[in-house]
Amino acid sequence: MELKPSSFRANLKLRLFRSYDLMSYRNDGEIYARECIFHDNEGNHILAVYQKEEIPVFGATLKEGKLYRISNPAVLSNNKPTIVSNKFKLSLGKRTTITEIVDDLFPKHVFNFKPFGEINALQNFEKAPMFDVIGALFVSDPAITKPINGKETLIMDISLEDLEGGKELLHFVGKICIRSYEICGKRSSATSHSYYSVLQGREI
Q1: N or C: at which end does the chain have fewer Cβ atoms within 10 angstroms?
Q2: What is the pTM of this model?
Q3: Residues 110/48, Cβ–Cβ less than 8 Å
Q4: Nearest 5 degrees, angle CA 148-CA 153-CA 157?
Q5: What rounded mean pLDDT belongs to the chain?
Q6: Alpha helices in 35-126 (DSSP H)
């Protein structure tokens, strides 16, 4: 995708990969904005954000997995490169129009798999852009609830094994635990050699 900073005339075709609310922990978890992660037809990701007052407008339209034509977003510099590596991000506001479209040729899923050895070699995981992992389920534990920042939060751990016998622990936080346990909780070992791809996500 070709973007120009400070532009309001972009016309983009993007699929919504993930959306989540941004909450202020200093104000009893009040939602102040919502962030979205989109990808284009070449697998490039871009971050988009809209403020609390726009949630009733865009929140009813934007659904994960759907494809959209997004016109007239504000193009800004991305100051959170730890989520996506794109140097730009989008701000959705009153000038922005969003229309759901259908294109059977547009990819529904894009992956950026990273080997376990490369993950373990990361010097600072928190500054690494999103990536995906794939492996056989080795062990999974039921989700439990623990207080995080004063809020009761679901957490869950699973362990994946790659073809070389390397193991990687994945830590889930928030509502993703429910979806993960529906899949992983049905198996306690990798004896069936069923493989799962696990997309990296961040609960904010």
Answers
A1: C
A2: 0.68
A3: no
A4: 100
A5: 78
A6: 55-58, 116-120
Residue 10 pLDDT exceeds 70: yes
Is the pLDDT confidence value at 174 over 80? no
Query: Which residues have C-beta within 8 Å of that of residue 169, sequence separation ≥ 6?
Result: 157, 158, 159
Partner residues linked to 159 by β-bridges: 139, 169
CA distance 8 to 73: 5
Beta 45-51 vs 88-91: how paired, if at all? parallel
Alpha carbons 152 and 156: distance in angstroms, whole number:
13
Is the confidence at residue 184, as pLDDT, over 60?
no
Residue-level pLDDT at 203: 34
Asked if residues 36 and 62 have their Cβ atoms less than 8 Å apart, the reply is yes
Q: What is the pLDDT of residue 58?
A: 96
Residue 109: what are its φ and ψ, rounded to 5°? -140, 140
Cα distances from 179 to residues 47, 64, 140, 170, 172, in angstroms, run 23, 14, 13, 14, 10
Fold: same for 12-100 and 116-198: yes
In DSSP terms, 71 is beta-bridged to 11, 97
Q: Is the pLDDT of residue 40 over 90?
A: yes
Q: What CATH topology corresponds to 116-198? A: OB fold (Dihydrolipoamide Acetyltransferase, E2P) (2.40.50)
CATH number for the domain formed by residue range(s) 12-100 = 2.40.50.140
